[in-house]
């Protein structure tokens, strides 16, 4: 029977999952799927490693109205699919590790309790991240579960990138520039080392552009600075989140408009960003297809701010040798990539229109000052590798302790 790692990547309205077979120190994909539309139009869909559809089923809203219910559905379905596999561990994406967690950790009662205290730092994401952990601990209490943190990749930022211009006491309490999408950046930086090692060893900006969006400046493969800082609201405009915002706006909304913190939070997490700008949708595909002026303005606003972020990060890393686009928009929207690079023409960046249309791996025109790439991300694979490594380390520790005894 083959040993396997199960990976859960839970969001506020979806759960993505993958099963990886362990082959020595490597892993191979067995199946992947998702439950999306949680609370609205729930649907379970999964495929095997060859792309064959294994299941495609819709549910009533009442059947899957939370990530916890979705995880029960996934677990029930998975049991029938993995008779030839022994699942030895479960890896989870956890958006925020706070000041205490900067590397993957096996979840126990203490870790779970600590993570629950961080919910206010990522109220849209952390509850959804923790629900599957609770469900699977209840169903399989002896199966190790590993939390892999999106903030961990950014740990070790220089002080200039780690601090806000606020009193030191607040920093000591944990109010700092954490950075997010770290699992994606880690995967892409590893992939770039295989594609263009000379670029990867230099100064690179990775633009993770999806419903949630951020950009990261790396030097020698290590994160130096990032646009998304203390919370998942900061930095670039996103599908329904505004990105960077003058804090005076929040004071005005609360003090002058009489909005409650809960009302402000709902607006910032659910009603802003591309949806707020366009009044139409948070989906870039719909906005690009629309003839609405507001839709066009929302796209231009997004592209301008991505370009501004890339320029700013180039300052933090002292130049630019490579630019990488990744995640849903970054990988699949050539119009967005073209507009972003157009805003950066002054820097010498140049894009090959044909390669860009084809979503080729390398899309620069080979005459610019930096190379430009499109690299699909795979957070789940990164989680599986971290989980496998941690479980092997634990096993070696147990064996060494037993040998000494």
Features:
single chain; 405 residues; alpha/beta; Nucleotidyltransferase, domain 5; 2 domains; 16 helices; 41% helix; globular
Spatial strand arrangement across the major sheet: 5-4-3-2-1-6-8-7
The tally of structural domains comes to 2
Task: List the helices and strands in order.
Answer: EEEEEHEEHHEHHHHEEEHHHHHEHHHEH
Largest sheet: 8 strands, mixed
Structural class: alpha/beta
Which radius of gyration do the C-alpha atoms yield? 21 Å
Query: What is the β-strand count?
Result: 13
Task: Show unreliable segments.
Answer: none
Q: Can you walk me through this structure?
A:
With 405 residues, the protein is α/β, with parallel strands linked by helices. It is globular. The protein has 16 helices and 13 strands. Strand 2 (14-23) and strand 3 (26-36) form a beta hairpin. Helix 1 (67-81) crosses helix 3 (126-139) and helix 6 (182-195) packs across helix 16 (379-404). The relative contact order is 0.11. It has an eight-stranded mixed sheet, with helices on both faces. Strands 11-10-9-12-13 form a five-stranded mixed sheet, sandwiched between helices. The chain folds into two domains: 2-149, 2-Layer Sandwich (Nucleotidyltransferase, domain 5); 196-374, ATPase, nucleotide binding domain (Nucleotidyltransferase, domain 5).
Question: Nutshell version of this structure?
Answer:
This protein has about 400 residues and is of the alpha/beta class. The protein contains 16 helices and 13 strands.
How does the SSE layout of this entry go?
Elements: E1 2-10, E2 14-23, E3 26-36, E4 43-48, E5 53-58, H1 67-81, E6 85-94, E7 105-106, H2 109-116, H3 126-139, E8 145-149, H4 159-162, H5 168-172, H6 182-195, H7 197-200, E9 203-209, E10 213-219, E11 222-226, H8 247-255, H9 261-270, H10 273-278, H11 284-289, H12 293-316, E12 322-326, H13 327-332, H14 334-343, H15 353-357, E13 371-374, H16 379-404
């Amino acid at each position: 029977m083959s040993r396997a790692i199960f990976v859960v990547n839970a969001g506020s309205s979806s759960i993505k999952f993958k099963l990886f077979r362990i082959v020595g120190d490597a892993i191979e994909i067995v199946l992947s799927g998702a439950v999306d539309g949680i609370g609205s139009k729930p649907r379970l869909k999964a495929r095997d490693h060859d792309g064959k559809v294994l299941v495609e089923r819709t549910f009533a809203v009442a059947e899957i109205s939370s990530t916890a219910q979705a995880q029960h559905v996934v677990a029930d379905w998975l049991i029938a699919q993995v008779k030839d596999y022994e699942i030895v561990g479960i890896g989870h994406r956890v958006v925020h590790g706070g000041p205490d967690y900067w590397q993957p950790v096996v979840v126990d009662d203490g870790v779970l309790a600590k993570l629950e205290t961080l919910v206010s730092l990522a109220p849209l994401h952390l509850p959804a991240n923790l629900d599957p952990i609770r469900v699977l601990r209840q169903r399989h209490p002896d199966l190790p579960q590993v939390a892999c943190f999106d903030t961990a990749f950014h740990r070790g930022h220089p002080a200039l990138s780690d601090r806000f211009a606020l009193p030191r006491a607040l920093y000591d309490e944990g109010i700092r520039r954490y950075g997010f999408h770290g699992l994606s950046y880690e995967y892409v930086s590893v992939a770039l080392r295989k594609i263009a090692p000379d670029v990867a060893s230099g100064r690179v900006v990775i633009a993770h552009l999806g419903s949630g969006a951020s950009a990261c400046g790396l030097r020698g493969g290590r994160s130096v600075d990032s646009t998304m800082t203390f919370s998942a609201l900061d930095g670039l405009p996103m599908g329904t989140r505004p990105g960077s915002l003058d804090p005076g706006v929040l004071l005005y909304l609360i003090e002058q408009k009489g909005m409650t913190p809960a009302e402000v939070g709902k607006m910032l997490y659910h009603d802003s960003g591309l949806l707020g700008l366009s009044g139409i949708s948070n989906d870039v595909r719909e906005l690009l297809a629309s003839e609405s002026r507001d839709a066009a303005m929302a796209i231009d606003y997004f592209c301008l701010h991505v370009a501004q972020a890339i320029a700013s990060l180039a300052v933090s890393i002292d130049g630019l040798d490579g630019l990488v686009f990744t995640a849903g928009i970054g990988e699949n929207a050539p119009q967005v990539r073209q507009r972003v690079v157009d805003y950066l023409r002054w820097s010498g960046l140049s894009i090959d229109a044909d390669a860009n249309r084809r979503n080729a791996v390398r899309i620069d025109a080979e005459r610019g000052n930096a190379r430009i790439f499109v690299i699909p991300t795979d957070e789940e694979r990164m989680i599986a590798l971290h989980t496998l490594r941690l479980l092997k380390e634990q096993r070696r520790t147990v064996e060494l302790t037993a040998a000494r005894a």
